[in-house]
Give the backbone structure.
Amino acid sequence: MGLTDEEKGMLDGAEGPAVAAAMDLLVRYGQALDCERLCDVRNVAGTMTQPSPVKARLVSEGGWNRAFAVINLDCDDDLEIPDMRVPTCQLQHGFGADAAGIVPYPAGNIALQTDAEAFYGRRGVSILATCTPYQVGNIPVRGEHCAWMESSAVIYANSVLGARTNCEGGASTGAASLTGKIPCWGNHLDQGRHGTHLIDVRVPVNDFEEWGMLGYFAGGVAGEERPVITGDLGRPDLAELKHFGAAAATSGGVEMYHIPGITPEAPTLEAAFGPAAVPGATGYGPAERRAVYEALNSQGSREDVDFVLLGCPHASVEQIRRAARALDGRRLSPGTELWLMVPRALKDVADRSGYTEVIERAGGRVLGDSCPAMSRAAPAGTRVFATDSAKQAHYLPAILGIEAWFGTLDECVDAAVTGRWRGELK
Amino acid sequence: MITIRGRAVVPGTAEGEALVSREPISGWGGIDPARGVIIEPRHELFGRCFTGKILVFPSAKGSSGWSGFFQSTRLLGTAPIGMVFARVSTKSALGAVVTRVPAITGLDADPCEVIKTGDWVRIDADRGVVEVRPVPPP
């Protein structure tokens, strides 16, 4: 891989040992990709503060300097971690102190994360604490090269915003934060952004649940490649595209998609495929739609629901309002809990707007920073959960060993109020 | 002995028993780093342990936590000893780097077809060679 003089200097230690270690990781990573060069980035979204048993051990051995060196730079040397070279934010992580007493979550993790926030905040890491940085002020512009983690954020940044980022990891974002560099590969290149698969939608897709199911289907069809979606589509809003992308990145490894006439790099169907011919279409009709619904609902048999989870990816203000409206004047079943996961900055908006009060009066909770999957935490004794998120329905059974139901917001609220799952595909 | 050729993702050599997945593998939400086991319920390798094996798979899927979870297997002593994958992505490339095990991709045959679970495999990533000694049929 070719390096500029500036990059060679970093590698040789001109900017200190931590930057040298970061550049060493980028070189090894770039060679692993068979990549020719690095590109400049000034927008990094990674993870440093999320507690884990490995991290707790490293911190006890050598503080946060050691944890960052090993986990975020893949380096075993003793390093002083300097200020972030470029704007860097922390994505979702564990639960904070305000979740104590609500979420069964170790107090030691809360303390570890609080300590981490202080360490990294002093070095210029903005603690956005959400899987949706684009909902709370980090909105890259079209064409901007970024180094983001979080598959649902990566697909949103590439597809909806037209920014350019691969699906990075903890070490590559750590190295990018200290160098402002990332391998110029994949989604950073024009030829890595054109569509590869055409999906023709033959059933109406016009609400949050439908967009999530279509995303789950698209990920199965396209795998790690780039689906182009046409057909019977309503005009999607932020929440629907957030759900679509999160689902496509879950069932497959989709990091980029196009919807001609909607997403910025596909003014037309032909443009979505770049120089390549438009391929034959895979249909998404009633049978495919039902198969997706059944796959997402194949991980449950008991109809008594202990737990309802909303806000995956973290809810928008509009979704919080919709949840509040659905819960207004109702009361959760005594055996059922409902959590709505939100970016902390939007929790403030929800509090001021009265949405939180309505949800809490019904017995629900509005929680920032994390989610049950990230923190491996659900209400004590949960055996069956329901969610409106295809991504969470996919992952949480594996992570927590519980059963799952997937449906609409109204079906989830009904389950929370009655303690029974009565959802069905309309 | 079967030989297939590709390119190094992470240099080095490793030799051991293969664990082969025909399906892509998830890191976060797909493996338990504490035990080195595949935990995705509907996965063909559900419940299987990859510790000390050469992990052969088509590609990495799912969360960007892929590399971090495989890095944790290294730090917890449950890592595979090598990786062979058909298609490279940022997840699998970075994952192999931070797991610090020899890894090969870009092979001239589909490794998930050529190699069977239980086969004895030797990776020489520096030369870009995977040697496979098939396990005799029972």
User: Anything to note?
Assistant: The mean pLDDT of chain A is 97.
